[in-house]
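Hi there,

I know you've been waiting on this one. I reran it after we fixed the sequence typo, so this is the corrected version. Both the input and the resulting structure follow.
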Amino acid sequence: MDVTVLLGISLTLLLAWINGANNAGNVIGAAVGAKSISAKKALQLAFIFEIIGATVLGHYVSTTIMRGIIDPGQLGEDVLTTGVVVVAFSATIWMFIATYLRVPLSITQAVVGGIVGFGLATLGVSGVAWSVLALIVFSWPVTLILAVVLSILLYRLYTRVLLHAGNIRTLLLVFTTLLYVCVSTTLLVAANSIFSGTLLLPISLLVPIPISALYMSLLEKRLRGDYYEVRYTISRHLLLVSASLAAFSHGAHDVGASAGLLQVLVDRLTTSSSVEDSVSRVVLLVSGFTIALGMLNWGYRVLGTLAEKITPLTPESGFTAQLSAAFTTLLVTRLGLPSSTTLAITGAIIGVGLARSREYVNIKTVTKVFATWTMSFPATLLISLATSTLILR
């Protein structure tokens, strides 16, 4: 095996691993911050749904990473392999710095910056698809704003519904409805990758009915106590549902950053004459598993930043924040845009804080997160550009 290819595979998997370690807070930070589940159990839950999301939906963003920003067909095989090494190296270095500083970071922004830097070094200004890049960059603030707005609306709606839910039976009905919406939305996005268009809507609408009904019946048998105890228990269960959805959406989106690069190397090993148009399920599975492993191994490092320091979280606010972030992430994932799960969850947590009062938002922590986030794209671009220039000189 070529040494460069072996190095590229190692760096790409390391990139996936550090992505999981850094972004654990994006996935289960709200659940842990709301004191609804221990960090250990939350990471174990995220491990499962992260892999499922990556395998089922990861190909959308992966394809954009592979060939949307620069055209790999314009590069020779050796140069392209070197490019994967440079991009993975640049993004990994930046991710390790951010993780050490306990700051959540977007891997997709780091990888996009690395690809642009390598493209400029090898193909020049004309070699970068600036229109695609502009759309990707535009999606970053849109993701943040959408998450903030959606979070504020969902929090106010949810708390208002709870305010008028005067008995346990109504609480269970609210829970079942929200569970149905979560499962149905996930299937609507995920089933599009598996089933034909004619089966998509019936599957998305009908399959969640028995799932929600069964969950409700099981929960109803367990719930004994006064109204407020039941309300707290239901909120905790909803928080776990939204945490699972958040892990699923994170895997679906963020796996593209590492899987897109890994697929290029796999094509080289299989002596493919050109880069394939899509990423194989095996590559998505391997990358998703490595991300999930990073969460388990080192996910506690950045967990507290989003879990505790932006705004105080309750089961109700944690649930709406995670749900808003997950829905936002699923949207940009389906559009194939390498956006930012960090922006989505940060915006969602800010949203629930603003929905209560501006004083509930820790501006110092938000500024720290945004400062590192803003630096990610230019930092990895410059690292990649400098490294590419030195290697290819």
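Quick highlight: Residues 3-391 form one domain.

Best,
R. S.
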